[in-house]
Every structure is written in structure tokens, then in C-alpha cells.
Amino acid sequence: MVIIFIIGTAGSGKSLLTASFNEWLKVGKQKAATVNLDPGVLNLPYVPDIDIRDYITLNRIMDEYGLGPNGALVLAADLIAEETERIGGEIEDLQSDVVLVDTPGQMELFAFRASGPYIANELTKEQKAIVYLFDAVFSFNPLNYVSNMFLSAAVYNRFFFPQLHVLSKCDLLPPEEANRIVDWSADPEALELVIEEKLSGTRRLLSRDMIHAIYRLGLEFQLIPVSGKTNQGLINLSSALERILVGGEKFTL
Ligand SMILES: Nc1nc2c(ncn2[C@@H]2O[C@H](COP(=O)(O)OP(=O)(O)O)[C@@H](O)[C@H]2O)c(=O)[nH]1
Ligand SMILES: [Mg+2]
What we know:
Elements: E1 2-8, H1 14-27, E2 32-36, E3 50-51, H2 58-65, H3 69-79, H4 84-94, E4 98-102, H5 107-111, H6 115-122, E5 127-135, H7 136-139, H8 142-159, E6 163-168, H9 175-186, H10 188-198, H11 201-216, E7 223-225, H12 234-246
Parallel strand pairs: 1-4, 1-5, 2-3, 2-4, 5-6, 6-7
Helix pairs in contact: 2-3, 8-11, 9-10, 10-11
Bound molecules: guanosine-5'-diphosphate (GDP) and magnesium ion.
């Protein structure tokens, strides 16, 4: 069994990718399952096999602690940690090969509080990986792209799991624009060039220094373009996961 955490900024397409990748894996006869860890979500594009909302509801937290929706979300992120053992047990019971974990809408609630890495580490002893989403529409601008690299490096530093990077919602850009962003991820010189061309002043300096710092960490950023809407790129995502997790074999190994 492998556990895959889907992480990205709010609206980057985590939930739809969870839904589509789960269906796609099942069509390919893999035993896949989904876990929703977002206590605040109202509508999901899939029916999760395990749902944190069965244990933690935002309305109850708001009533019990006299909090507004934002405060309740932060508290909920911490309270999830108390359900770790129960959810871990449920995951084991699923007997799936691939478990996709859809994380809270606002990624800082999962990635940048103590509870997220705690849950991720303690949930099960199975192999784990992170799929980090670069929202294609947001990443179109080189400054935003570099900010996203920085965020994904910060996520890597929090979890230390094998991490893959995808260009999500890629159907929203013309193919040549999506390819341009993929080129930045494959070729540091192409990224430096666009930073020099498109940015100026402090933004240029900061972006340049930031990418150098990130390259020094030795992180791989090769983006895989995917769409949860058209299923484009899911086959590449699946092969990349197989490569990093089980040395190129199917998940069912
Ligand atoms: N066109 C397109 N829209 C998408 C895609 N993925 C998500 N969306 C839309 O973007 C919005 C946010 O997606 P969601 O999966 O809820 O993002 P999350 O906050 O990261 O879970 C929703 O309106 C989705 O329908 C995609 O691949 N293509
Ligand atoms: Mg979501």
C-alpha cells in the first residue's frame, strides 16, 4: 500500500485531482481509495472512502468554542491530530494499493502547523509520497512560479517524503503556454532567462536568489502537466509515482 498526499494552495485542484486520479486508477484495475482530510469542505467531487468530517465538523467547533469559520478551521486542523490513530486504522482496513489523501483547502493548515506532519508520519507505517500542485493559471507568471517553487520546497522540508510536482489544471492554458512552464521546471537556464526578461528591480533579485537557494537544496522540480478535468497527464503521474515509490513496478507489487 502507498499513501499519496495531495498538497497545493487553495483552489489548485487538489480535490478534483483526487477524484479523477482515483477513478483513473480504478479503471486501470488498481485498488485505489480516497481520504478527505478537509473538515471545512462542503462539496467534494467524489465520495471519500474515509472522511474526517465524520469525526470533526466545523459547525460544532464554532458552537463549542465560540469561534468564527477561520478560527474554527485552524482549531480543526489541530484536532485532526487526535483522530490520527482512528483514521490510520480505517486506512489499514481498506486493503487498497493506492490511498489518495486530499488535504485541507488552505494548505498552510496542513503543511505549516505541527499537526500535518504529525498526522502524515503517524497515520500508518506504509510508504508515502507527496504530489505538490502548481496551479497552471497562477504559475503562468514567472514571479508566481518562483513563489510556488519556494512553497513546494518549504513543504518538502516539513515532510521529507518523496515529492512529485505537477502543473495542475493544465487544460486552462494553451498547450504552448503550459509547455513553457514545464520548460522552466526542466531547465534552470530557461527560468533564469525569463526572470531577467520579465522581472525587474527587487522582484528580479529576489526571484534569482530564491531559485539559486532552491537549486542548492538539490530538489527536482520537473513538472508533470495534468488536468483533473480532462484526465490529461494522469498516466505520466502514475508512472512517475511508480518510479519514485516502487522502482518502476505497479503499485500492486
Ligand atoms: N478547468 C479545470 N478546472 C479545475 C481543474 N481542477 C480543479 N478545477 C476547478 O478549480 C476549482 C478548485 O478546485 P478544487 O479541486 O476544489 O481545488 P482545491 O481547493 O485544491 O481542492 C473548482 O472549481 C474545480 O472545478 C482542472 O484540472 N481543470
Ligand atoms: Mg479541496
